[in-house]
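1st attempt posting a full record on here, be nice pls
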Amino acid sequence: MSSQVFYGSPRQARLEAEETLPAKLDLILEKLNVRDRVKDEKVAIKLHVGNNIGYSTVHPVFVRKVVQAVKDGGGFPFVIDVAWDVRGVEARGYASEVIGCPVYPAAGPDEKYAYSHKRPFKNIQEWKVAGMVEDASFLLNFAHAKGHPSCGYGGAIKNLALGCMTGPTRSAIHDTMQFDQYWFAEKCPDDAVRQKVIDSCPFGALVQDKRDPKGVHMHFEQCNQCGRCLQVAPAGSLKIDPVNFQAFHEACAISAGETLSTFAPGKAIHLVLATHMTPVCDCFGFTSMPILPDAGIFGSDDIVAVEEAVLDKIAETRLIEENIPTSMEVHTRQGHPLQWLHGPIKNPYKVLEYAAALGLGSRQYELVDVLPVVKIERSTMAYIKAQ
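the predicted structure (as tokens):
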């Protein structure tokens, strides 16, 4: 069954405020009937507020509009994110005086206020959902789209999957990539050869395992599956296997599902702002040049559908290769543009397969443009000459 995704294009026909993305967000909030749905609700607005000196997160202008819509509808809004990002949040523009509501650490300042959800998956036995999330009665999930070194793409699902869990659970989600064995020391007994394998990676993805003198540890975040290491490693000693990378995708889908399970049907809305999309997560604490053209703003009740729509819209554009940091490379031009950068195994659609299988939403969607761009035939120069 198809789900509606409301969309605001970054393009304008006229130089008017009514055709800008903040104005289109207002239209999306109207289409989603936000004001009619939040009366007397405790509304958790899940943002990723970034870290350090990053400035490409969701701009406070957009946040203020969402907060005001909740207030207009008689709801009680508050912004939440993980404790270490909330510290110093005012420096990035999220002061309560600016956005119109308080900003809280989702699991408390020490990340110990949480509810346990039992669900075994690889190395994880329980998922600790942040207390401020589970105590809320309504969720407004407002994500910033960007690349991500663990899975290729970070958007609405990752915003919940990591941002609504405690620190130990977030760490465990990343550690799922280590669960399945990829290094087989008995196939590479020679220390010198093992060092050559480690040195073969230009991105520092392979290091000596601190716990095992014969071991090799893979930092999957840095790995773009270029295969240089496999050309050096003895046969059978090293695997670059989708199972390791896709464990993170599946863990994110499960985690987002556990968070959403704490809200009644119809009590969650998902927004994605796809502007100034950088190569890596906003938690890195800085903003680099955008690697993709702005794709617009999206909103839906369906977290899977909205992510599918964002990724499809991004896929219509090209990777801005000249903006890629020189420490990264493009070694493939197949698949989604984010796969060009992060590698073919880090397929950004993979998490949607898992999420849809878990019943979190539909991958079929109807894209509804809230303000279609009308082509103006007369050129700017003709207009100027006519004055």
